[in-house]
Structure formats: C-alpha cells, structure tokens
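Readers of this paper often ask what the protein records in our data store actually look like. An entry from our holdings is shown next, in its original layout:
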Amino acid sequence: MLDHSPADDGRYLAQGPRVAIRALTPADGAEFTRLARASAGLHHPWLTIPTTGAAFERYAERLDGEQRVGLLVCLRDSGAFAGFININNIVRGAFQCGALGYGAFLGGEGRGLLGEGMGLVLDHAFGPLGLHRLEANIQPGNARSTALVKRHGFRLEGFSPDFLFIDGAWRDHERWAITAGMGPGRQDVQRGSRQGAPQG
C-alpha cells in the first residue's frame, strides 16, 4: 500500500514502502552529477544526463515546473538518490499530456526502486498535476526500460524512426503511452485527476 502523505519535513510529494519522490532542486547538483558520472556505463547508449556543474545548472533551469517537472526517486529512510523521473514537454488545454524521461543511478538499478518510484510519479501526474496522458519514448534495444513501462500498464502505440539525437546519432524509438485510469489500481486516480485538472 502506497502512502501519499508528505514526509514529516515536507520534502516528499509521495512515499512508497521503500522510496519517495521529491522535486529536484539546484542544491542537488553536486550529488546528482556525482551519481551521473558513476552511472555513465549504466546509461550508455540510452540517455545522456548532466555530469558537470555547468551542465546541471542548464538542466535544472529547464525544469520550470510548468512545461517540465524534475523529480528525484529517493530511498525513503536515507534520502539517497536511487534515480530520477522527469515529465517533459507538458501540454495543457485539451491535450493534458507529458513525456517521461527517467533513469536509475548505479546501486539503485535492478532492485525495483525506479519501478516503485514510477508508480508514485504516475499517481502524482494523474492526480495533483491533472494530466491525462503520459508518453515514454524508448529505444527498441532498451529491454529494462521497456519492461518497466509494461509493468505499469503502458501500451505500445507506434514506432518513430530517427526520433531523438542521442550519443552522436539519430535513434529510432518506440512510443509507449498510458492514460489516466489505465494500469493497476488507477481508476480512483482518474476520477481525482478529472476533478482537479487545470483548465486552459
């Protein structure tokens, strides 16, 4: 059973049995970039994230909370970073959609921590953020990422050739998506998101 009440100090947006999610802040730069450097082998060739202070500053500035929301998946007890999940390219109005970008940090992979965090992020996106749809664009060879979204009820909607420029080349991606109410136990979230969805 997930606990969506804030932590005592107010840092966390939602908590599960082992992890919690909170907003990424500029103060997280040193630890985020340290873990990004340590996790380079884990992320290559699937994604590129900032490994220097200057790159992190640019990255954090783009996470404005309106069109992009940056979230850290933290170990609930210690606050250590297990991974990150961003909601990018948020479009409101009749669309109410965002695109997910995510990754585990070294030491947090293969333990189900990012998966637990993903469940919290989906509930947050379809609840308080009032979104209706989330997409995840995944390179076909990225078996771990594909398995993650499948576990959460995403459906495969299409294939996009030369979709994103990653690691020096334009990479093909599969387009996976989920809408509010899809997936295990999301019917209540769907009703809540419709009541609280921003108008525009």
Remarks:
- The chain has a mean pLDDT of 86.
